Amino acid sequence: MTEITSRLSTALADRCCLVLNGGQPWIAFRLDPGETKNGKGRTLPFSAVPALAAVLKDQRAYTREVERRTGRVCRWVFHREGRQIKSIRQVWRTACKKAKLVGMIPHDFRRTAVRNLVRAGVPDKVAMMITGHETRSVFDRYAIVTGGDIREGLERLAAAQEPKGTLKAQFSA
């Protein structure tokens, strides 16, 4: 695992632990009640995202090695040699600096996640469940629309017109 991946992964450490879903072999993060901003827990099956699954798999191997070496069970996915990470501030700043994203805060990445979900065509309700937004108004504040988004929307509309040129034919008559 690269140092930057390790540092960014560590930034999630205080709220996440590895879970299995009914013994099924998929990787998920369980955010326990009280560990999220809205106080409600949720489970996110990150095995559906291969890059994240790879990070989690590598981290799980590291955790098993620490457990073997120390003889203690570690309940955290991300940790410092089996010890809980209490603060991520310095790690976050260092990771952002190395990624050339100085000044970014976790909510900047949450905003990016919302945009990426919306652009990928994920239904808003599903995206809200993934990001933990309970109200439409707060979700909409994160779903920033740009001029490029508007242009892409109009291009999709034009591509959906059947047969090609139907709209033009209607106005030229």
Mind explaining what this structure looks like?
The structure is a single chain. By secondary structure, the protein is mostly helical. Helices cover 51% and strands 9% of the residues. β1 and β2 form a beta hairpin.
**DSSP helix fraction:** 40-55%
Which structural class do the helices and strands define?
mainly alpha
Quick check: average pLDDT? 77
Distance between the termini: 63 Å
Please report the number of helical segments: 8
Count of DSSP strands: 3
- Let me know the largest β-sheet: 3 strands, antiparallel
Radius of gyration over C-alpha positions, nearest whole angstrom: 21 Å
As residue ranges, the low-confidence spans are 4-20
Strand order of the largest sheet: 1-2-3
Oligomer: single chain
Q: Any descriptors?
A:
single chain; 173 residues; mainly alpha; 3-stranded antiparallel beta sheet; 8 helices; 3 strands; 9% strand; elongated
Compact overview of the structure:
This protein has 173 residues and is mainly α. It contains eight helices and three strands.
Compile the SSE list and pairings.
Elements: H1 3-10, E1 17-21, E2 24-31, E3 42-44, H2 50-70, H3 89-98, H4 106-119, H5 124-131, H6 136-142, H7 147-160, H8 166-172
Helix pairs in contact: 1-3, 4-5
